[in-house]
């Protein structure tokens, strides 16, 4: 009878011991910033690292088909540090995508819509 330790191939052992970082993705539901057209609304994608250590994030502003129309990062954020990125008031952005290091539980993201005077809607990332 073979023992587990002797049946483990060198490749499997290497894979088991390797430490590769993984990324998680958080996205917001779509809501067009510029509806009605030329309304002057701006989409802001805000994110905060709520984990205990430094993490990395890339922010993308997406159109309805899910294509990135603008991106920011990657950048490092310390624990409880946050940042924001906007579509520049083009009205073309509809949602935010946050690609983050580690677990999604370490991050909070939101899409915030601004009409130039007030924030009109906020949609949390999941």
Distance from first to last alpha carbon: 49 Å
Low-confidence stretches: 1-5, 7-20
Shape: globular
Please identify, by name, the CATH architecture.
Sandwich
> What is the count of structural domains?
1
Strand line-up of the largest beta sheet: 1-6-3-4
- The average pLDDT is 83
Which percent band covers the strand fraction?
over 45%
Radius of gyration, taken over Cα atoms and rounded to an integer in Å: 20 Å
The residue fraction in helices comes out at under 10%
Order of helices and strands: HHEEEEEEEE
Please work out how many helical segments DSSP would assign: 2
Tell me the major beta sheet.
4 strands, antiparallel
- CATH structural class: Mainly Beta
Quick one: how many beta strands? 8
Query: What is CATH's topology name?
Result: Hypothetical Protein Tm1070, Chain: A
Secondary structural class:
mainly beta
